[in-house]
Amino acid sequence: MPSSQVSDKDAEAFDYTSDHFDDHIIYGGWVDSDTLPGLTIQDHGPVTLPLVDKTEADRLAARCSSELRECSSFDDSSEPSLQNLLQLEASEIAFSNPAWKAGLARLAPVIAEHLAFPGVELVLDLQQLLLFSAGGPSQQLCEFGSVDGQFATLIVQLPSAHNGGHLIVYEDTSPVVHDFGASAGTTQYACHYAVLDVKAESEFTRVTEGVQLLLVYAICWPRGSVQTAYSFEEGIRTAMAARLGQLSDQERRFCYLLDEKCERHDLLRLGPAGIRGIDRHRVLSLCAANDSLPKDRRYAFFIAKADCSDECSWTSSPEFWSRSVIVGRLIKLNGEPVPGTDPLPYFFGDQDVLNPQRVSLASLWHGRRRTAYSQYYNEPELSAKEVRYHKRILIAWPARSVELLQSACRGEMSSNLRLLATKPSLVRLVEQLNHLKTLSKLDRRPFPASLFRQELPTELLSRPFRRELFVLFTELFETAEDLLDGSTGWSDLVSLSQAPKAWKVVEIPILQGFTKDLYTTVRALAISLREDSPAVQSLLVTAVVQGTQPVGARLLESPTQRKVWRVALALPELAVCKRLVERHLECGGAALKSCIVELLKAREEQPEVYAARQGLLKPLFQCRRAWLQGEHAKASQAIEGEEVWRFSSASFQRHLGVQAFLRSAERTAVLRGFSTQRSARKLVKTCVEENTAPSWSPEPSEAFSFTARAGGRGASSYVLLTKTDEYPQRRERKRLEQLEALEQELAKLAPVIAGEGIEAQREPRRADVSTDVKGQHKASGTSNGSPSAESRRSKRVKTA
């Protein structure tokens, strides 16, 4: 079930192997230092190992096929750079040394023990031989795992003289490298192996010299045990059917990201049983539960290819990447394609993803990875990359509304517009509107409302009046943002207001929509100032007065504030201005900076209009002044004594011991507990990095400054930390700058609160031009009853 809905019992029914490969970690070693396989290749003959002779390597490369089979383990096989990757299928390979088979038989229990399956007779099934020659791309993207029952992959590197070809496996975004004995210098003298999860994202680095030979084995469950592992209890099926029925009643749809590839020819031959691995068990379980539901509550299932693009910085966490997904052509579970080739939007939110393993969404997408774009700068924080993932997904859609999904596949995202153009009957139009109304209640709409909204009012008004049509219209577009959306939003409201019967039906629902969205209401009122529509303007005024939604961040932004107070000052209704003032006062003085700036502009540009409402607006200036005075009182307190060395805002998550020292009042500290001097030096390196200012900033942004020095040996190693006065001085400079800014803003508010007119202010301002800068600062400081910021700035920063 979707992750927000699934029960622990349901999740366990779907989760069979997820706990045995945390983060796809790899491990490896030697197969057997004294054993070589006696490799023989069809139409080529025996291969001498170690492979050191260039002539034989070239002859072997010529024998290997560069044509990658369908469902290849490698992506982008059409690219010319992959012609340096050659492969042979298992049927073309033989081993003449009987000891090789015996060696693998001894290796299988070792792998089972390491994977926490002691005593399980795992099957090692040879899949192919890979040959990497020099001159290939910097990284070869690999996707292993196409055998039913496979859960891991064994890669055996045969002895050869070569450089490069290291295996990289990604744990989230961090690479784990396996070099097949290169660091020990044994690649030419022994067989080395690596074991990795079948779902792991893996790459091979470029082979820069020689030829690399790899045998790829599928690690599978024991023969005949797969069906037992995938057994589906009646109780689980009943619980799943009940859950599916509940979701269907809510018009919920969901998707499941397949771990394995799923090909159409397998579906045509076997139906859903043609899906591979544990995905087959999960899909068959869903189908069985779905079949037990009444027909009007069932789901329709489809398979589709999904392309996910993540845009991120090199240092950001995967959960904060910007993700976009496009879904390709749909295929039914019997292999029959859904007509149409248009790519689909991604109709699913995080809460709609089937997540039986209960992992992060980023982890679900991992696999089938390809880095498509990278942009590097001097600073890692500014460097960016785009990573693309290609996966098959199972789409579950309520069967009774599946026609809407299929119409999108046929390129009929605007089919509703075409429906209106055909002048449908009343019954057909009501049916279509009811479908859209049901879907609009979902968390994420499957079709943008604006595709239909711009044409619907014109269609309804052109027909003989039917009350139920206008009721459906307001139920379908019940938010202010929907009603005002698009280039025709305002004109549609005006058209409705000019039709008395229709307006009587829609007026109250439209009013309710605008009372819940002050931001959109202000936008509409700004339009009403230049458009003549008394009925709509009266409705919007009522919405402002009766509205209860708090002022949001969008309304407090400077461009929107300009509209807010232009509307408040221009409308003849004082109730609008009064209500907007009340709503802004609820935000507190800290949020009123843009508000005060716009009001001061209005006071100067429209003095007469402002004067008529200055009594209503004065509480905003008083609220802002009260907050400024409080901040001024805080900033006036200089940090002295031992508190100078307390960096209370310091954050050092890379070592909590360092963070605790920085937040204390101690100036020096010694950290111990290092096992080696190397560990101590590593911490010193981390401290230096955190204290270094980025190239794009004149000074460090961190709230600390200190030095670190390693000493001692072995278990007696330590790190000496000493705070420096760089950050205290930087902190004091910022305090003085803050004081000066506060005093300047207080000076601007004083005459406004005192009720002085704009003309009275302009005369002293001209006199100030002839005074020196120091005098201006002095006047500004004494207006608040405190020493000037300039005089304080001249004092030296004192530190203990």
UniProtKB/TrEMBL annotation:
Composition bias type Basic and acidic residues, residue spans: 759-775
Compositionally skewed regions (Polar residues) per UniProt: 779-789
Residue segments, region Disordered: 753-800
PANTHER family noted in UniProt: FE2OG DIOXYGENASE DOMAIN-CONTAINING PROTEIN, MYND-TYPE DOMAIN-CONTAINING PROTEIN
Protein's name in the database: Uncharacterized protein
Organism of provenance: Pseudozyma flocculosa
Phylogenetic placement of the source organism: Eukaryota, Fungi, Dikarya, Basidiomycota, Ustilaginomycotina
